[in-house]
Design a protein that fits this description.
3 copies of one chain form a homotrimer.
Chain A lengths: L6 H7 L24 E5 L7 E7 L2 E7 L5 E5 L13 E3 L2 E3 L6 E2 L5 E3 L14 E2 L1 E4 L2 E4 L23 E6 L2 E2 L3 H9 L8 H4 L1 E11 L3 E12 L4 H7 L14 E7 L2 E7 L5 E11 L7 E10 L5 H35 L9 H13 L12 H9 L1 H7 L1
Antiparallel strand pairs in A: 1-11, 2-3, 3-4, 4-9, 5-6, 6-7, 7-8, 10-11, 12-19, 13-19, 14-15, 15-16, 16-17, 17-18, 18-19
Helix pairs in contact in A: 2-6, 4-5
Chain lengths: ~400, ~400, ~400
């Protein structure tokens, strides 16, 4: 029915001058790799003496801010009857389950069952390495032994006073990989034509490292005037005619699993610095929560940026809303088609796709996880063996 | 648990004087045959210079009315990233995808990718034969080579000035076959007792052709007075006592895949002429959109009908609402029971059921379509072979 | 990921002094046994000359109150086209389907098809034994031959004029077994700390019979004052200091499939008497409707209780709301984990769990029921045989 073949078949056909994808894995079924630090909440969401429930790839996690103000992270299920600990009561430096009062410390050890002797305390719950930086609470959801040596992300200019930072994000109903592709492919300016006017991106070339891909762009305005929101982002007015000498360079980089977008003027001043992470919420990783730090360099006359900030917020929200809408349509198409039918022609995006598969989690062992789905897969699995014999 | 056996078992028991159904196919799993012209939208829904998304049996289709006013139909998925073309921009006689601006003409050919040389244009998308008649946009969703010779439906009196036509329809959450059975079995007047009073239908006999079934009825009022809405439909007042000589004949015909209902007076004037089609929306065909053309013969004093029209609209809407409610309950019962447990005793309906199976699409080859479900079926399929060996 | 092992593994480890559970069945997949009398509606819900649709474990049942006032229960599906009979019309002592007017008497026999000769009447529908007591309509959903000898429940003090009875209940989205465990484990007073203050339950020991388990508790207030709602339940004010001589005894009993909670003062006056039943609604039994009769002994000065009744209603509703919330979280955890990971340490609850498995319905034969799910199971089933050969 569909004239365009699925990604893999096209690549093998070799008709396009793009990197060949050797993998047979569907990119939208590649789980994000858990052995990284992921932001799971804004600091302001976890109030002193309160617990807050979040999720990473289907795993419920409770973030607890104790009475002394420190934050710890545990599996968000009481060991007793599996109810969420985030509905519990913070008691000093511990969390007490709301149901029968079982109590856990920051290591997940059960330290009290009110109706049981202390000598018979049951097992506790899993704890997660946890760190608070730049207004974000990070958790290391993978192998805890790897947390100490794992690279903690550079959060860009969020703590540099020369910049003003907007913290933003939402739940988006798509696989995290669509987010990476959306931001990196600046040919999608057409989507934002109502906000940005008619802009043409020109790719200046790409670079690739072991765990990163990046690309540079310049932009030319094809028609219309520069919108004021965009001018704010750049801190100054730019030329509006094609090729009028605007030599700002935008660099977009996926340094797995994070993404950054920086804009530098020709005098190499960085006027905009975005750090962003996409955190899968459900086990199938078909939704993600986005955490973005958007830093804008303060102009000489400081208060100007503060005064114009609401307009910048409004402008970026509208752009983000359009992006959210389109990536959710991409996920919907994948759900309906049951496979990745994308027909990508832009080399940098094919490079990015390869990176996301390589650095992603290995395929799940069907028998290793607990859901009802996995058991069904397990029952069906032996078929292969049988038909081979 | 259920005293009544499923349809097939009963028929084989032979206890009822009805045509034996030889098929083992569940009627509610017979897909409508795609090699016919189906209305997918009202003309007024597709405005000049706009695109409009519709569905046929799970396939997304975009209807585009170009700047010159003609309508064409394409697969509603950009070949690039599968997002809906109906969110795009009509550009002269083409449609431009909203995301990266890929452009398609009326044949589905990709004629422009803004950031790619014209010599390297990728494959396009599927196009569908498309025709606009009587305020409806028809598409031929099956094999396009058959479209030219396929019979285009006779839309009844919709373009005859002696009649006034009401265009109506809604989404109904049931398999299209329930719609055919509902309209053809006039013994369901009991359902409309609050609108119609106590009416008794009498079947005068049925006829059957290769691709059609029809049945004639007369009606007798058992109690109560004729409602004014009904009088309007007939254009005059009729007797209200049983067998008082009302010899109007109602003929209901399924001429696959369409249905008509005509009422003729004893002097053979057709006072009412309904043409109706039921278009499956989802792949499982458990919802349909109904497109109806209800034509009423204008009385001698023309403006009378126009004046009374709102009342007729109200009356038919109430009838249709009751029908919609009951067929959705039928679909619900089928979903819960997982099979067709209907126990049909009315010969014309059994004839109709046989026709709908015979003319319907052949059973889907489980491995041929793309959804996640099909893959599961595919995995399970080999079992039969294995157990036979 | 989870530090606590599933129930069975822990028991086998034998580290806790609790009854060993020998079963391998997941308690949350044990269906309630159908060979008992279950309340399916309040009498007031089934008005004279009206029909009312209810469900038991996925089976639709219509309760019909005829013009003479008696109630009967039938399968809530017309034998003809499976639409719900509860949308029909009560006609004397019969129910007439709303669609084509097929008519059934209290035994489920089809007594009229308006357009068919009486000599050719089709099969009817299943009927259920039905009984009305204490404002509740009971149905026997299992083998009807066992209904006569099945023990009808003792509904406590609901018909004793020395008591005032509140009828309450709601739909709760969890397996019925969570309800039994919630009520029987009084260590969950911590959940109600905002309503009840800080109370400590002390278990006085448990008893077990063939089809019942019961446990006695006393309570001591650890902090705070007795709330007025609680005082009302007990009909008098009690001591508020720990061990101040309050010797009220609360006895909670699951007499399969019902549950009771009685509070007796030291002079053996029963001041509170609760009878409660949990009726599974869906086939998977993941929701239940609760029917409770809460009887409070009238104090010497009768009108006092009546005057305070709204406060008691408010108090019990708040308690019930908290319980409903937590058991729904338990069901949610089970759904996500796909198995019972409970780590129960309280002996009486392990006793109760064993009873609920023993008295529950035998495992469903996968091929015996009709839903689409069952067919899938049926297809997969042969695998076991194959791999053994």
């Amino acid at each position: 029915m569909h004239a365009a073949l699925p990604q893999q078949a096209q690549q093998e056909g070799g008709s396009n001058d793009v990197p060949t994808q050797r993998t047979t894995r569907d990119l939208r079924r590649v789980d994000i790799h858990p052995d990284h630090w992921y932001p799971l909440a804004w600091s302001r969401e976890v109030k002193r003496g309160k617990a807050h429930g979040v999720r990473f790839a289907g795993d419920p996690i409770v973030l607890v801010r104790t009475e002394s103000g420190r934050v710890f992270a545990l599996e968000d299920r009481c060991a007793h009857r599996q109810v969420p600990l985030h509905a519990g009561v913070v008691d000093g430096e511990s969390i007490r389950c709301c149901y029968h009062g079982w109590t856990y410390d920051c290591t997940g050890r059960c330290t009290d069952v009110p109706y049981l002797g202390r000598e018979r305390l049951p097992n506790g719950v899993r704890s997660y390495p946890c760190r608070e930086e730049a207004g974000l609470i990070f958790v290391f959801p993978g192998d805890p032994l790897l947390a100490a040596e794992a690279k903690f992300p550079d959060l860009g200019s969020a703590s540099d006073k020369a910049y003003k930072t907007r913290r933003f994000g939402r739940e988006v109903k798509c696989h995290y990989t669509f987010m990476h592709e959306n931001l990196m492919d600046m040919n999608h300016q057409f989507l934002h034509r109502r906000q940005m006017g008619s802009m043409r991106a020109r790719s200046l070339g790409r670079r690739r490292g072991e765990d990163w891909v990046e690309v540079d762009y310049t932009f030319a305005r094809e028609a219309g005037k520069q919108p004021i929101g965009e001018a704010l982002v750049f801190g100054q007015k730019r030329g509006t005619r094609p090729d009028d000498g605007n030599k700002d360079v935008m660099t977009i980089r996926t340094a797995y699993p994070y993404q950054t977008l920086k804009i530098c003027t020709k005098d190499e001043t960085m006027v905009m610095d975005l750090w962003i992470a996409y955190v899968p919420l459900d086990r199938e990783q078909r939704t993600n929560r986005t955490f973005g730090l958007l830093s804008i360099r303060r102009p000489k006359i400081g208060p100007l940026l503060d005064a114009a900030w609401p307009l910048l917020v409004w402008f970026t929200e509208r752009i983000f809303k359009e992006d959210r809408w389109i990536v959710e349509r991409e996920q919907e198409a994948h759900d309906r088609q049951g496979a990745d039918h994308n027909h990508e022609v832009f080399p940098v995006i094919n490079e990015l796709r390869a990176l996301l598969v390589e650095r992603g989690a290995p395929p799940r062992d069907a028998s290793a996880h607990a859901g009802p789905d996995s058991r069904r897969v397990h029952l069906i699995q032996p078929l292969t063996d049988l038909s081979a014999s």
